[in-house]
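quick one before i forget lol
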Amino acid sequence: MLARVRAKTGRVATLAGAGLLTGGLLTDALWAPGLAAAATAAGLGLATNPRILRPSTVRTVAISVYAAPHAGCAALLLAERLAPDTAVSHLVQAGAVALWGCATWYLRPGQLAADLVAESVAQEIAEATETGQDDQVEETEEPAPALPEDPAARWWADLAVDGGVAPGTVLLDHQRVSEECVAFIVGSAERGVPVPEIPRRRLSAFLDIPEEHIEVGPVPGRGTGVCLLVIGRRPAPEQPEQPEADSDAVTWAEIAATAMPGVELIEANTYEMRKELT
């Protein structure tokens, strides 16, 4: 209800100001009373509008916006008093009066100033609430530990927690042996302490793979502070190619073993026998 009364009062004040400026075009007797009326209207409007005077970061800007049409009206009255009495001057003054009236009627500086203060206060309340919530979260929650960048190290971190499969260990290196086998070098989290025992049965249950596909052993050439963990089916070693049973090398090896020990076959050539020799 009060906001509606203020809106109507602002419209009436705009029409009164436009009438005062129009009268100033016709006579110089209105400029002094008009200045007093503009100042009085601005003071009464601010005094009866506590929304604009509320403490906020934009209060000065809001007061300036509210008082802008009053200051503009006073400036136009003074300009009408000092302007030369010519047709062109009257035409320019009439255009300025029309512009002032349309801008004040359309922009509604009083409502605009109140909206600026209300928005600023709401934003300050929201920021204060958010800051209080952030402080409360920081007080109640412990900072989460930084996770390793390597995906395998992050995976091993789930096993190395207290109560996990391999507490007190860290992943030092890993290498994929084949599509079904991965080798890990695991170290003790504490220097100078042997790697804690990694139970194969628990690791088998955690990974859901057969226990025989998990091997835990020493790293060749290293101490007990590190161990080698192989997970998955190891690839079968490649068998060297065996020479054919009827090859010349095998035949000569049989001859050399009995008849000519210590003699090595260097080269062998094959010839077709002519019919005359058979």
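fyi The chain has nine helices and four strands.
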